[in-house]
Amino acid sequence: MQELIPFLKERGLRITPQRTLILQTILSLKGHPTVEEIHRQIPHISLATIYNNVKLFVSLRILKELPYGNGLSKYELTNQPNHYHILCEACGDIIDFNYPTLTQIEDVANKLTQFKINSHQMEVYGLCQSCQRKEGDD
Amino acid sequence: MQELIPFLKERGLRITPQRTLILQTILSLKGHPTVEEIHRQIPHISLATIYNNVKLFVSLRILKELPYGNGLSKYELTNQPNHYHILCEACGDIIDFNYPTLTQIEDVANKLTQFKINSHQMEVYGLCQSCQRKEGDD
DNA sequence: CTGGTTGCAAAGGCTTTGCAACAGG
DNA sequence: CCTGTTGCAAAGCCTTTGCAACCAG
Prior knowledge:
Chains A, B: Belongs to the Fur family. Chains A, B: Keywords: Cytoplasm, DNA-binding, Iron, Manganese, Metal-binding, Repressor, Transcription, Transcription regulation, Zinc. The structure is a homodimer. Chain A is an alpha+beta fold. Chain A has two domains: 1-79, Winged helix-like DNA-binding domain superfamily/Winged helix DNA-binding domain (Arc Repressor Mutant, subunit A), CATH 1.10.10; 81-138, Dna Ligase, domain 1, CATH 3.30.1490.190. Chain A contains six helices and five strands. In chain A, α3 packs across α4 (47-59). The longest helix of chain A is centred in the N-terminal third of the chain and has 13 residues, at 17-29. Chain A is flat and about 45 Å long. At the A-B interface, β3, α5 and β5 of A face β3, α5 and β5 of B. β5 (116-127) of chain A pairs antiparallel with β5 of chain B. The structure holds a DNA duplex.
């Protein structure tokens, strides 16, 4: 958090209470909140401001956008250890899990496609425990 | 294509010229078209019909939805060999590439999270060849 | 002070839906 | 025929934007 102040200032950006609160809220939610979930925690900050700042943070690579929200985007802080995601197809929940980084696949992809590789992502899809139980009830 | 007729009929769904054309168009486009790209090929079919049918085909698992279109969804036919995707961060293009299926990761994810696993996906991000050239020009 | 920021309301862009006319089987 | 389907226009939903008031530095 503190390390952001010089980072923003260098770029002529200001530390506003809104920006601080948005980041603190994402931190406190821990998971992968949507804009709507962030706004629910800090309803006195306008939705437009949250949208604009989340977008700004993504462009500054402070946040990462996860496009798996069924139309909505979810966000996570980038200053976290590498991990992959598992998504529940019933409730939409996203959980992190650790797995050795798939470094090889980037080399292969580069050889096969001649792309200049930047990163990769991997998601596993399934049913979380509580949705498995609910399914059993039907 | 032919194998779809009994598949739809079993479910009380009809084979309409629109449905046939939508699937043929996706086939002919080969890649991972958006709804808009499909509609551009068959503009005499209403956008609403294309949306409704694409959605129907996804629910029937004839099509798979790829949520990497920067807001738009892209679609691909499911009756294709397993493969992974590489995305160009500049132009948004999606290319398939082959890599041994990451079966192990599903077992690990199951052990770590207790999810019931259905599938997984993996995307590599980078710059395609033609966007690499363009970048060099700047 | 002064240019970046906020927040409201309006506009945008993609997608879904209500409904009357239509048509596959 | 009868129920599923089409297509228009309208509505929905999430997100972005114009702009005046505001405020961080």
